Amino acid sequence: MASRFEIEKLWREEKYKVMYFSQRHYNLIRELLKGNPSMEELESYIKEAYSLMPTTGSKTNAYEHMWGYFKKRATTEEKKKFFALLEHAKDDKAIKIYLYDLAKKYKVKYLTDSTILNGK
């Protein structure tokens, strides 16, 4: 049986990727974690979220949440680049790489450990 620590670690690593695919599943998992779920329950919700087609809105929401870690520290140029990528990105890879690079620059381990950015 997985410990609460292991369950929370998995959620920390997966939460923005879940949000990217489904805000509804993100909210369901947050509610689930208010109780005492098993690792299997959490993994099941995560897997279900990943089976869905992300919408432009869900992707934008996830990117903007991640951007929140930098918005007070980022330079004007970094801010311009982020919002240009967000507005014109047909390729999600470019914005994910940019957010990962910012996470490394500003030492935001929470994001560098996130599966949406580190490709795990």
TrEMBL record:
Q: Which residues form the DUF1722 domain?
A: 15-118
* Highest taxon of source: Bacteria
User: What's one Pfam family here?
Assistant: DUF1722
Protein name according to UniProt: YbgA family protein
**InterPro entries this protein is in?**
DUF1722
Species of origin: Nosocomiicoccus massiliensis
